[in-house]
């Protein structure tokens, strides 16, 4: 009962704080971590101990899946080269730099310092997505930082396993074996994720029950994660691949009503899980500090030094890369480098990895340095979420990369006009063929003309409520027009005429209109 009560209190606290964050325009993860720290420092607050499998199995899969679904596959195809360089090279370089610094500044042994480096080497997709959700970043920049955090798991996980092997058994490192394990983790996870996505797509294409669709959507990330972990591959990679594949084809698998329901349900799930997990990060730090052995009082300075070297190395790595590959045409390379660097925060996944460090080595004795690794990891996570999180939005605004609201509104309005014209052209074709009553065509055409002229006129003129067959014809015509508009919208996106955010917003508007027609039957 105490555990249930703790979870309920966390949900209430996190919901209140996250609601305030939205109202005050402060990144919710940053404020949640601060709130967690504040609560943990209150005298009498019970110590919080979270099992690593709880975060890894319960929290991570749906958050990773939602993040992967939001990612633009079109933009990913453009920035895959820098993403690969960051997900492989920068992770290895960060692990080495943190390991060397930890040996120099802390009492950690070389193997445990490497464990710390492997834990902190990769950016966190949950934190990156949560922080970037309200930033008006260009699509390719957003995709670059998001894809890097999603696809660097295999690299850091291989390093983590190698480092743990050194720490608990002092075994020799076989780099060819480590390389083979990397391809097993990344490749195997990708294959399982794609297979799960294919099976789910077949099931969802044959399902029309909204409740069943919702259950399938909620189970999908857990199925991909559990199957991949059971096959000793990367569960994170499997979830990411499944999310990217289904996010690309999801609009074709279900109707508008189900898509709206799925979006609403997943929004609630993501909100609750993100809110609770970031509050837990703040709550756990004081508890971990109390468990530190004597002589570890310098941990704040050590954590600050580790965070500084991670940021500095990221600057040195990203700046020349941004000069070679410019995600935004005409943007100065240093502006892109600054934003991509500062968006690389640590978060939930490093904490889960640190918690999974074994308690004992092969001799059955306590693993030395584990408590310090936990504290340093959590402290770096808190630092990046608070400092980088609170300053990321001002940096984006000052960099000049932020999309202006009027530009976004102009693009959306232009897209609305184009899909409205596509609908009118379809009605003209039906009129030429005599495939529908002229009165019904005129009624639907009037609504599209009003939208095209930015008019607020409503389609209620001359409506005869008693003419049920005529109204059914009008509804069917509007369904067909919406389908044509959806096809035109996807074509505009595929031809790079509009951004992914515009496509999602207009598809949402079309879904609302189609759902309204269905509910009015």
TrEMBL record:
Per the record, membrane topology reads: Multi-pass membrane protein
Q: Which residues form a coiled coil?
A: none
- Which residue ranges run through the membrane? 78-106, 112-136, 157-176, 182-203, 234-251, 263-283, 303-322, 334-359, 371-396
Does the UniProt entry include the keyword Transmembrane helix? yes
Keyword line: Antiport, Cell membrane, Ion transport, Membrane, Sodium, Sodium transport, Transmembrane, Transmembrane helix, Transport
**Location in the cell:** Cell membrane
The record's listing under InterPro entries reads: Cation/H_exchanger_CPA1, Cation/H_exchanger_CPA1_bac, Cation/H_exchanger_TM
The residues covered by the Cation/H+ exchanger transmembrane domain are 12-397
Tagged with keyword Transmembrane helix: yes
By its UniProt entry, which NCBIfam families does this protein fall under? a_cpa1 (TIGR00831)
* Main function: Na(+)/H(+) antiporter that extrudes sodium in exchange for external protons.
The cross-references to PANTHER family, in alphabetical order and at most eight, read:
SODIUM/HYDROGEN EXCHANGER, SODIUM_HYDROGEN EXCHANGER 7
Q: Which family does it belong to?
A: Belongs to the monovalent cation:proton antiporter 1 (CPA1) transporter (TC 2.A.36) family.
| The protein, known as | Na+/H+ antiporter
Protein species of origin: Streptacidiphilus cavernicola
